[in-house]
Amino acid sequence: MKRLLASTAAAVLAVSTLTAPVWAGTTINVDLWDSGADMVMVDNMRLKDHPDLSKAPMGIKISQATVPAGEVTFKAVNSSKNIEHEMVVASLAKHPDSVPFKAKLSRVDENAPNMNMGEISELEPGEKASLTLHLTPGKYLLYCNVAGHYASGMWTLLTVK
Ligand SMILES: [Cu+2]
């Protein structure tokens, strides 16, 4: 029986080598953008506000909003000319319609459960970085937690199926 199991394992390994692309995961291109030096920040574009994000002065644009479960690589670029941005990944499993928020600091509470499952922190204008996470099915929020940015609409939703 042991010998049979070993040869089965070898066969599985061989198959997984042949189907390597299936195991490679998904890459999402992430654009951290803002509308420049004349931009006026706002405070009514949090998730709970159900805002029209097309009117936001800054935001997070992703190349695909739905991805399969498994390895997900975020390739982020800060395309701002003059402002630092970042990208934090949160699960919305416990807060589907709003997230813990520290109003005085105008920042999401990253220490609350599921609110920081990984991040690309503080990218300078023009800077790039990537982050790979293993994501299970559910709804996720990508947001920038520089003070005021989340409330100005710098977030987007990601669905993992
Ligand atoms: Cu930002």
Break the fold down into its secondary structure elements and pairings.
Elements (H helix, E strand, L loop, with lengths): L1 H17 L1 H4 L2 E9 L23 E5 L3 E2 L2 E9 L6 E7 L9 E2 L4 E2 L10 E5 L4 E8 L2 E6 L11 E6 L1
Parallel strand pairs: 1-4, 3-11
Antiparallel strand pairs: 1-2, 4-9, 5-8, 5-10, 6-7, 10-11
Proportion of residues in β-strands: 35-45%
- So what's the overall shape? globular
Widest sheet: strand order? 3-11-10-5-8
Q: Which class in CATH terms?
A: Mainly Beta
Q: What is the domain tally?
A: 1
CATH superfamily: Cupredoxins -  blue copper proteins
Annotated CATH topology:
Immunoglobulin-like
Structural Rg = 19 Å
Count every beta strand, where a strand is a DSSP E run of 2 or more residues.
11
Number of helices: 2
The ordered string of helix (H) and strand (E) elements is HHEEEEEEEEEEE
Distance between the termini: 37 Å
Q: What class would the helix/strand composition place it in?
A: mainly beta
Indicate the low-confidence ranges by residue numbers. 1-16
> Which percent range fits the helix content?
10-25%
CATH structural architecture: Sandwich
Please characterize this protein's 3D structure.
With 161 residues, this protein is mostly beta strands. The protein has one domain (23-160): Immunoglobulin-like (Sandwich). It is built from two helices and eleven strands, in the order H-H-E-E-E-E-E-E-E-E-E-E-E. It has helices spanning 2-18, 20-23, and strands at 26-34, 58-62, 66-67, 70-78, 85-91, 101-102, 107-108, 119-123, 128-135, 138-143, 155-160. It has a five-stranded mixed sheet with strand order 3-11-10-5-8, with no helix packed on it. Strands 2-1-4-9 form a four-stranded mixed sheet, with no helix packed on it. Strands 6-7 form a two-stranded antiparallel sheet. A hairpin with a 4-residue loop joins strand 6 (101-102) and strand 7. The chain is globular and about 45 Å long. Mean pLDDT is 90; it is low at 1-16. The structure holds copper (II) ion (CU). Copper (II) ion binds at residues 58, 85, 144, 146, 149, 154.
